[in-house]
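Hi team,

Below is the intake form for DUF1156 domain-containing protein from Gloeobacter morelensis MG652769. Please confirm the fields before the structure is written into the shared record.

FORM ID: S-0412
PROTEIN: DUF1156 domain-containing protein
ORGANISM: Gloeobacter morelensis MG652769
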Amino acid sequence: MSGRAAIRRAASSGWERLARTEAPELPFESLPSDGIALAPLPGTRALEDDGFPFEALSDVAETESWRKEINRPTTHIHKWWAQRLGTVFRAMTIGAFAPSGTDIFDLFYKPVRIPGGTVFDPFMGSGTTLAETVKLGAKAVGRDINPVAHFLVKCALSVHDRAAILDTFHAIERDVAGKLRSFYRATLPDGTQAEVLYYFWVKTADCPSCASPVDLFSSQIFARHAYPKKFPQSQAVCLHCGGINEVHVEARDTKCGSCKKTFDPNAGPAKGQSATCPCCEHTFPIAKTIRASGKPPAHRMYAKLVLLPDGKKAYHPATDEDRALYAKAERALAKRKNAYPVVAIEPGYNTNQALGYNYRSWHDMFNARQLLCLSMLADRIRAISDPVLRELFTCLFSGALEFNNMFASYKGEGTGAVRHMFAHHILKPERVPLEANLWGTAKSSGSFSTMFEGRIRRALDYADDPFELRVSKGSKTEKVFGLSEKIGAPVADDYTAFARDARVYLSCGDSGSTDLPGRSVDVVLTDPPFFDNVHYSQLADFFHVWQRHILGENGTRVTDTTRSDREVQNADGNEFTDRLASVWEETHRVLKDDGLLAFTYHHSRQEGWRCVLQALMQAGFGITAAHPIKAEMSVAMPKQQAKEPIDLDIILVCRKRSKLETHRWNGDLWGTVAPPAQEQVNRLRAANRKLSRNDVRIIVMAQLLRQLSRSPTLDTALHLLDSANGDTEALIDRIHGGGTGQSDKPVKRKGAV
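The structure came back. Fields below:
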């Protein structure tokens, strides 16, 4: 069906009027010949319809979620901790402007434009909302209190000169690549020269009884395949002589090929939180022993993976030559001035674990060779004269940091080799860290050069020709091009410039206070932070100190931390509620009276939902619709380790309460909550989605909040919520118990890429 036919098919008279309305003259791409123009008309929106196609959109979002960095590369040029799915926010944006009755899933694959609309995201994070808004031809306003988020979104959405970027990369390569790679060379036993892909290290702790250094291996197998049942060969280090042995991944007894001694490759001195000294057999607590030393733990290099001249890879033990080369890097680093940022790590929920291992400053997380090579690369990037290019390559440099530190580890064969330091969403000291070749080779993972190809080039390609994913029958996936505008526009740094002629306005600061005029925004789309989860600023400081080191102490980098006492994220529920309410109050001020606020959210605890309800109603909003949708985490380690993983988000659609009718509940509450919750669960199960009890919980809680937000007063709503716990749990049990009885852990769906 053509775009014009879709317009004629729509049932809403407002939709028909829209088809005849000419788009205003704005500095956007012209509307495609078969395109559809949406405008912020009054009335109910498609995003508020009960028939919003969340199950079909979830299938597309599922496919995107497995390789977000490939399927939405523009918003994945740098690490952020809540990188939402572009599929979801494209659908939300279209649904927020399209009138009720519109077939959103059909429109999803049409060249839609919203030339008269303005979308605001007060928690822009990695910029998903803004990128999807730009693709749809609307004006985008983004704000975030964290300087790292502001920086990466600015780099992602700015206009970039592809030729200049390539020339700059090649110039950097000419100037420093050879110097960096010289510290990752090795001579093999037959005299062959080879490049080192990775050095393998192990943390050591001095035995409190005999003072002997103890390797903190929990297993002497240090390299295995990502699919060990199919490929059981693995690499084990002999702790008697240091020899490297290929062993079966489940072997419990093997003879070292070098010293001929037998050992258990699946055992090591460390077991859980304790270690046993091989010399005196004294068992001691690891963390307590390291803390008592008063310094970060020491490391021992024991193996390397080299790239042979014929392109094959080979594991070898560390040699005296390797140790001498590392010592050379230590001496070179000592001679450099201002080589790296020296900034203390502040205590916090996400930093205390590192502090407990005596990591006192951010540079403690790197070894000397890493600091040397990062210093040389940083100096070269700082010398780039063009500010846009300097910022883009600083962004690339910053992104490479999470793979090139002593908190990274080895994922093994058959997958990307380097497990980045934030795999656990905390600063977890790694007992067997991996040191990667910073510049890298064609076979490297997480290196500066390969990330240039995998992140920057891929993002440029996507920005020039964005695509959407379509899952066809048989779960085959295709890319659909030609639906969107290019990504890339001059970014305004104040509202005056934005109002005059800009498409994108980004700012860094408290979203509870903006320079946006009242009633100037048509739609607010966002994803607020959780109050008791990952504290972004505590982790973002790892990147911020290096960005500041290269780009200077100015603008958004005046201080050496991204932490702020105005952050919404707060472990205290009352503080979180007050700060979130402050942002929603500002949202209420800048949003047009007939505009929508829509955001994604999930939480496993009652308190998390109470905070959201209180903040919304305190700010003057009520919920008009709630839709379950695929959440972003398909491969995140915290989800894989959870007993009741949450695979869904909830889209909460809100309007100003002054535009809504209130309702006094008199025994009829659950009659309005249970049916839509049951229907949504039924729709998801009919689409072959397995739901955990926590998935059902968020559906029930969202429908409960939807009704309670219509209460006459906030006190009434909160009282009903607080007294509804027993009924809530009973309804969750009843709905969840109506499932198939199969495992409630989500599985990778066919067609995921």
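SUMMARY LINE: Residues 1-29, 634-642, 739-753 have pLDDT under 50 and may be disordered.

Thanks, M.
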